[in-house]
Prior knowledge:
By secondary structure, the protein is an alpha+beta fold.
Amino acid sequence: MTELPPPVPKLDARVLLDEVNRSTGAGLEFVGRAAGGEVGAAFVRWPDGRDGVLTRGAGGLAELRRTAAALDVAQALGLPVPQYQMLAGLPDGVGVVQERLPGRAPEKADRTLLEAMIALSERFAGIAPALPVPSMYLLESGPGFCLHESLERYDDRTRRLLGWIREVGRGEPGGMTGDDLVHLDFHPGNVLVDDAGTITGIVDWDGIGRGDRKFGLVTLRFSAHVRLPDADLTWFDELLRTVLEPAVLRLYWAHMALRQVDWSIRHHTSADVTHWLEFASP
Length: 282
């Protein structure tokens, strides 16, 4: 097999914390590693007792400042999103300390949670400030994810899928439109809930953008395929066909197919690759 692109490295939270403290003098204390997530995050505490979450930001300092401003707008409108408490420019990227929201990751995903997330996403409508429209990366590789090279090099099945993805990318529409706030990884692992199951937070806003909030429903449908393997999700498929034009659904589906198959090739097993190929292929 031709050599595949490397996986995205896991976050070494203590090393990043040391870098941020040396760079800024913030005096942050390490509290613990955050559970879940593909790359990782850490819980930290400010000297004044405030709790935060430390991650390495996706993008440069100017891009992350736009993200922080967009989240401030969303929070002012009552959405349960975190404030960015600090952006620390580092030699190899940006350290992000964001507000730690109340609640915890849901113990399980079910239809009630999915419907609550769908309803909450409606509040993203028309509230995006001057943000860039995120690319679907159907004709070129993304920055660390949605890599075409993985599918080109893996096997004949992934090359066929990549051919379809590029065909979609050459068609219309060629990308998102709209003025909604877009969460690019909208799934149950990126929400927090209280003891009653009410959503108290939406986290992981890397790659925030302006476009179509309904893109998040396709992301959520892909996640539901894994998190609710035995559930009847016919209702969700019917919802997607109702709220999205066929060509738009095809565009979003192609992006998610590329994202999931590439990530599985580089980070998971051959069984995972087959699983996503069977679900995502047209």
